[in-house]
């Protein structure tokens, strides 16, 4: 399983390994396990550290719970839930070794075949994939 290692950027921001959470959505079924977290921001870390986890759903149940998912194909409305998928476009693309995310066009991920040279770009978030 590849690991994503953040690279420093001029904004000192690191990319999230997960997509931005979607409000009021649940990925039905396919629970691997659940973890206690007071906010949805911590669920991504739990998911990326759990083998087979491809998405999570956070709810306020029990003072905050992350439901880690093995599949996120079926989404259903769920009031108050926050759902996100692991951002793995690069790991699924042959030859991709890194990516750069920018806010261009409401958020765009540029997949890279080489990460030998980096340059500062305000607001950009970059990461290398390590296998």
TrEMBL record:
Keyword Nucleotidyltransferase among UniProt keywords: no
Domain Apple: 18-90
GO cellular component, one term: extracellular region
Gene3D superfamilies from the UniProt entry: Hepatocyte Growth Factor
Superkingdom, taxonomy of origin: Eukaryota
Keywords for this protein: Disulfide bond, Repeat
BP-aspect Gene Ontology terms: proteolysis
Protein name: Apple domain-containing protein
PROSITE patterns listed in its UniProt record: PAN
């Amino acid at each position: 399983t590849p690991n994503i290692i953040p690279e420093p950027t001029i904004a000192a921001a690191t990319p999230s390994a997960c997509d931005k959470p979607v409000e009021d959505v649940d990925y039905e079924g396919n629970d691997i396990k659940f973890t206690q977290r007071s906010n949805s921001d911590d669920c991504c870390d739990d998911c990326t550290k759990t083998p087979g986890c491809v998405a999570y759903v956070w709810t306020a149940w029990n003072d905050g719970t992350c439901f880690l998912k093995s599949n996120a194909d079926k989404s259903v409305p769920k009031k108050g839930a926050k759902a996100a998928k692991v951002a793995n476009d690069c790991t699924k693309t042959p030859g991709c070794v890194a990516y750069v995310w920018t806010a261009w066009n409401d958020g765009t991920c540029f997949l890279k075949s080489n990460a030998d040279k980096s340059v500062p770009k305000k607001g950009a978030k970059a990461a290398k994939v390590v296998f």
